[in-house]
Design a protein that fits this description.
- The chain is mainly β.
- It is built from two helices and 15 strands.
- Strands 1, 2, 3, 4, 5, 7, 8, 10, 13 and 15 form a ten-stranded mixed sheet that branches. It has a five-stranded antiparallel sheet with strand order 6-9-14-11-12, with no helix packed on it.
- α1 packs antiparallel against α2.
- It starts with 7 loop residues before the first strand and ends with a helix.
- About 40% of the residues are buried.
Length: about 290
């Protein structure tokens, strides 16, 4: 199976939503910024799935990034807007340049999935949204903006948010949202055919090492929707195995754990963007070894 397809206040310029204590950000060592600076990409062309994966420099091939004292070599980013992948637009969404939007007319759901390697967690610090000035007579209201953990529980959620056509709206998390898997979701289906009139930019995220992590411990329970689903609890049992089995069967990016299944070979324990039997047997070996 191949996986790589798919309180209001002013903060600088634009309208901002600030969550948590801003002072807490100082403890974070560094972050990667996605500004969709992608060489050769024109308006309406799809954002490559590799953009944002394992960033180690401000320029990697034709991909450009920003950095705040560090990078994210242990995080992979996946994009989806339902039927099609998100696309680039250079200008016209508020005051943003080089942003990503939902090109699937009427699909109304933009989602980014951040997946950290085993033993690491990803931290989401910030992102911006803006509306396309030419698509609306007044500032539109979208139905939902949320950041979800691996089990689908909302770490941040806001409904009926007005998005400006002239300036970006900041979503700034003073205490970064953290987990091995984070899903950033923007829902604008209420705008009908104009759902693609909402775009995202300046997404800032980091990674943290989790010392002493039990790598095969993935969840508290194996039943979706129950408290602790997708949240490690320091106990390794069959719930963890069946949780992984569910990820693998669903072709979930979080199930990608290794390049090969033979210990000592290059890429062992290093996710490679391809989900296959090597990943399953690698997890099985971790689970059998215990913690």
């Amino acid at each position: 199976m191949e996986r790589k397809q798919s309180k209001r206040q002013v903060v600088g310029a634009g309208i901002g939503v600030v969550v948590g204590a801003v002072g807490a950000m100082a403890a974070h060592a560094g972050a990667t910024g996605l500004n969709f600076n992608i060489q050769g990409l024109a308006n309406g062309q799809g954002v490559p799935q590799g953009y944002g994966d394992r960033v180690t420099a401000t320029t990697m091939g034709g991909f450009g990034y920003t950095s705040a004292l560090g990078f994210t070599p242990n995080v992979v980013v996946d994009y989806t807007t339902g039927a099609v992948e998100p696309s680039l637009w250079v200008s016209g969404y508020g005051d943003m340049t080089n942003c990503a939007y939902d090109q699937g007319v009427g699909s109304g759901r933009f989602e980014m999935v951040f997946v950290a390697d085993p033993g690491f967690e990803v931290e989401l610090e910030h992102f911006d949204l803006a509306a396309k000035a030419s698509a609306f007579a007044s500032d539109p209201t979208i139905s939902r903006v949320a950041v979800l953990d691996a089990g689908g529980a909302a770490l941040y959620e806001a409904t009926d948010h007005s998005i400006s056509r002239t300036e970006r709206r900041h979503y700034l998390f003073g205490t970064p949202l953290r987990g091995r898997v984070l899903r950033l979701v923007v829902e604008s289906a209420n705008l009908g055919a104009n759902s693609g009139g909402i775009a995202i930019d300046d997404i800032r995220f980091g990674q943290v090492d989790v010392p002493g992590a039990c790598l095969p411990d993935l969840t508290t329970g194996a039943v979706a929707g129950t408290p602790g689903f997708g949240v490690p609890n320091g106990v390794l049992n069959n719930d963890d195995f069946f949780y992984y089995l569910g990820l693998f069967a669903a072709n979930d990016p979080a199930a990608d754990l290794t390049t090969g299944a033979v210990a000592g070979t290059p890429g062992y324990g290093v996710p490679n963007g391809v989900l296959n039997n090597d990943d399953f047997f690698y997890y099985l070996a971790l689970f059998s070894a215990g913690c």
